[in-house]
Amino acid sequence: xxxxxxxxxxAGLAALSAATAAGCRGWTSDKPPVHLNxxxxxxxxxxxxxxxAFFADGLSMRLPVEGTVAxxxxxxxxxxxRGLGADGQPAQDFPASFAATAAAAERGKxxxxxxxxxxxxxxxxxxxxVMSRPAPGNYPIPAPSMMDARPRSMxxxxxxxxxxxxxxxxxxxxxxxxxxxxxxxxIVAYIVTLQANNPxxxxxxxxxxxxDLSKLSPGEKVYNAKGCNACHTVDGTPKxxxxxxxxxxxxxxxxxxxxxxxxxxxxxxxxxxxAKVVTGxxxxxxxxxxxxxxxxxxxxxxxxxx
Length: 306
Fold this sequence. Notes:
By secondary structure, this protein is mostly helical. The chain contains nine helices and four strands, in the order αααααββααββαα.
């Protein structure tokens, strides 16, 4: 083949290639595009919220098989996972499976600044940015300072449960979805470290916090351990709720009319607080899970607060 023929052939092939490429750009087809290396891009798989032709109910998302627990979710350590002691009550100390080290407290500080500081403050003094919002955007129940006597006296498991489940009808929501079990205990370790570094001068010697429960009557223990002291005082000064001093036998004005403070009224107030809301106080008290004996003990204590 001479040089001229070679040039003509080359030019012809180039023109054909250009025409083919130009033509391909404008073609349409009802066939799927050619995927030279599909790998796992087009595998048959179930995606969240998509329809499934495999299962009879048509749902891709499946419930766990009855009677089974996903690996890593057994949570058989009640102290670590639920903050409970052997008696089923909030654990007084850290679980045996958790090491309350300086590293844990430092990790707790990091989590605190993200999830807790907006309400409780960077210094854990209850002066977070959310608490400074004016009405009506403010919170009906202010976030407490972790330096106050009540948080100091709380069982560590009680603090853990507050982080996990929230408190006061979601005035503080639970953070179980955001914080792992380890992270929740890390935050508790950070709080304990803060309290140890800022001692309460009124704290009972040898007690973790400002109240030594071992020295209290059964009713006083309920008042302190179950959080009644967060909203109700015993010295006559109103707080978020009516003071307990002089409450027994008194007639309270409520949104349902006058109500005599007797045993029936107090039991109702504990189990269904919204049944009768005392005039002048916000409707924010959550139901309090007390046993019959704890209710009796609390009522006996209130009777002494003349």
